[in-house]
Amino acid sequence: MFQRFLSIAKAYNTRIAVTNEQFQVTYGELLQMVEALRPLFAEKKRDGQNILILLALPGGPHFTAVQLAAFAEHAVVVPIPNKSTTYEMHSYLGLIQPDIVVVESPEAARQILNPLAKHMTILSLKETSEKNEAHRVLNWEDIMNGGPGTRNPINPGNSKFPADTVLIQFTSGSTGRPKGILISNANLLACLNNNHAFLSSFAGEDVFCPVPQFHAFGGAVVLEHLLHGSPVHLSNHFLPGNDLARMQQYGCTAILAASSYFKLLLELNMLMPELLPALVSVTIGTAPADQGLVRDIQKKFPDLRIYLRYGLTETVGTVTRLTIEPGENFSFSGLVGSPVSGVELGQELTPPDQGEALEIRVRSGVVAAGQLLEKNLWKSLTDADGFFSTGDMGHLDAEGRLHLRGRISSFLKHKGFRINPFEIETLLRNTPGIREAVVLGIEDSFSGQQIIACIETAADANAPDLKQLRNICAANLSAYKLPQRIVIMDAIPRTPAGKADRFHLRSLLR
Fold it and tell me: Where in the numbering of this chain does the AMP-binding enzyme C-terminal domain appear (predicted)?
């Protein structure tokens, strides 16, 4: 990975590489930052294992420099939200033991630092004068200038991982405990190679991504486009007005984001050719797009090309991609396109009109090396034939395109019926005036699970009321699938990545 970056950085030395709300660096400047960090990350632990770096910075140049320097020295990077709580830190520390922690400042990251072992090496982006007797604090500028601490030995932990591991990506687990996905250098290279032809079409073009860089989608977007010569502009604060100004400033030709972000831009009348004349395409990831969203984008921005991207934390980057050309009708909610080069799907999937949806299996070099079970203990993600079972349900049509039908773990049991909440959510999301819909099952002694639909309506006069929502459900769903409760909310709680926070919702509804 580092050699890819090195060749690109030398070829485009003065081109902007990465920006966020506060900082901007060229490829040449980013390379200088990387080279200054390498001696710190080059330290080996006593058993010869490479060090583990807990990365808790906002997305942008500094985050990217740490990641690339770690790749150069074969260290292992673990990105987490820069505002992680002490409670969340205990979950992470149940699986890993970091050797270096990178934060904005010790003052701003107290909840991250409190549960750490004593005498940890802390790299602080902002200069700090606060005395910290518990940890060894290094200032970023000192490291950039080759000052004290650059080559001092770290206090080594005892984390061990499979050979070639360079990244641990945390993702939500079904039990609430995060899953630590082990990603290798080979996985990252496979991602770049599988998507090379597609990414090359963006070479030199400015792209905008408001998905957090610690998130699997946001992190992949940065590496994919940065290593194909495209300046990447990141947003950490979810302020659409500021984002619009930056997209205009840099003449961004592409936006890559979650569906919720595009819904917000549409509601604020910001996704329009008059405001974004350079924009050529949008890529929707992190969750399937519904027909209503695609229809609304096409209505506001008729000449825009729309890409739908399906992937998982366990499958680095893109598994399938669908291209919707300007004026093309999108009539299949859940359709996410064909496998990209280098990706194979299990062929047991049936067409959408034949039989039940089955679990989607993936075989590819992008399937992660493994998953942490506890410290120093991991499991492979693939079966004897090299396939990874995703936990997602789907169909494969005659053209080889994948249709998503929800997750196995999300199926509800109501009065003996097995119900797919994705079907109900799709119906509601495609209703004009609805921004988001989440369907949950809440335990009930009589029926097994109550079906509860949580609705976030758009801020306009066309939003349906409770009676209209019940009528829509009754007209389109079998009686056993009807929600027992429909809850209209001002805003559905979301994770830092913009996805609906189902755990939080469930606690609110109990």
Answer: 423-499
